[in-house]
Write a structure and sequence with these properties.
Strands 1-2 form a two-stranded parallel sheet. Helix 4 crosses helix 8, helix 5 (about 70-75) runs parallel beside helix 9 and helix 6 runs antiparallel to helix 7. It has one domain (about 5-145): CRISPR-associated protein Cse2 (Peroxidase, domain 1), CATH 1.10.520.40. About 65% of the residues lie in helices and about 5% in strands. It has helices at about 5-15, 20-25, 40-45, 50-60, 70-75, 80-90, 95-105, 115-120, 125-145, and strands at about 65, 110. The protein is built from nine helices and two strands.
Amino acid sequence: MSERVDFSKLRERFDKLPPGLRAELRRVANPEELSERPAFYRLVADLEPGDGIRRVVFCLPWVAHGKGKRLGAELADAQINERRLFQVIRSAYPNDVVQLRRLLQHASPAADWDVLGPILLRWSREDKRRVLEDYYLKSSRLDSESAV
């Protein structure tokens, strides 16, 4: 993808969609189904609607924008079980993204879309590992705080 995506603006655009169009995006079962939804094309009208953008939009309804917040740390705060996160990390596309969205639905996190957006756009092994590392860094802090 050659163009620069402003992910926080994309999140704002999602928030401004009429409720019916937002619901249409929330109801899809996997990222590929977005290609059959008019709401997807309205949201990403100025972007190339490839696999990366579909992954971003698939998760977009479930993560609020929180400046400076990292997804892995937010999942740790929500006490998401590490086994469930490892399931996401070890799975292949599209199952990994579907399982990630289930975690997002459960946790209702806020994350910095300027950080999370590029991660979902690429969604490589390194990107998955980055989410996992943020989870463990936060978990270890939570463990040490509870021990004091």
